[in-house]
Please model this.
Amino acid sequence: MLDKLRSYYCPTYLYAITCVLLGYMAFQYHCQHKVLSDSIKSYDTNIKLYQEKLDELIEHHNKMFHICDSLIHIMDSLPLGSPLDTLIISSNFGSRKNKETQKWEYHPGVDFLADWRDTIYATGAGIIEESGHISGYGRTIVINHTSGYKSRYAHLTRYFVRCGDTVKRGDPIGTAGNTGHSRGYHLHYEVSRYGKLTDPKNYIRL
Model:
């Protein structure tokens, strides 16, 4: 009798255990599938967030590059360069005593010693506004820079540019001379902003 019971219950017992194990495995699969699905959704969400952040960062960098390019353009356009290869001041900006009249007078620029062969360079990028003879200044070139700045180069011997030409900093524009009201070969150099004259030495590294 006992053997019959054992033979009856053993398959049933094994079947029950198998069902329990299968159920447990199905439950574990469901849990893992849910975790995996949630992870994929979270991953997709994070990818979108990272992509948005990356797009914002790229846009910000593009704006910064644009600002830097604009600043570089402005710096190149300011009269910050040297008008001659060698700068030796013979007369400063401001009040000075006229050697002929012995009277004090206003000097609107800086005079640099130069020979008639010395090349004059544009001190900043801009457009040639004047290139011709001006009373007192002789042969003169005026460059219109950015932000209201203008630079004037006077008493020249030769011109290399004409009105309307575009120049960059360091471009040769003429040669020094002794034209106009001048007592010897030199370069008279002026810098103004919105029509107000300023000391050119503030813009030149001597």
